[in-house]
């Protein structure tokens, strides 16, 4: 399997992180739906499905929800 980590993967991470840290659990659900939808459109446009983009989406959601909960209980 070819490793395909590029700027698009980092954009996936940052967008999911931003949505999740701002909206919490609801943002995590929205980010998960948006990530699968974006990858589906990428597959239709570019002809490939990138699992690494979805991995970076999951990492962004995980880090975002962790920081959201941490900040929520600290503040």
Structure description:
The chain is mainly alpha-helical and 75 residues long. It has one domain. The protein contains three helices and no strands. The mean pLDDT is 89.
List the helices and strands and how they pair.
Blueprint: H1 7-23, H2 25-46, H3 51-74
Summarize the structure.
With 75 residues, the chain is mostly helical. It has helices at 7-23, 25-46, 51-74.
Describe the structure using short key phrases.
about 80 residues, mainly alpha
Major pleated sheet: none
- Return the domain count: 1
User: What is the overall shape?
Assistant: elongated
What's the helix-strand series? HHH
Number of helices: 3
Given the helix and strand composition, which structural class is it? mainly alpha
Mean pLDDT: 89
């Amino acid at each position: 399997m070819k490793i395909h980590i590029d700027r698009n993967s980092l954009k996936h991470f940052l967008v999911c992180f931003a949505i999740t840290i701002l909206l919490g659990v609801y943002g995590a659900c929205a980010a998960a739906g948006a990530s699968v939808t974006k990858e589906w459109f990428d597959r239709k446009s570019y002809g490939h499905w990138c699992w690494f983009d979805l991995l970076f989406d999951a990492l962004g959601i995980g880090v975002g929800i962790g920081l959201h909960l941490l900040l929520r209980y600290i503040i």
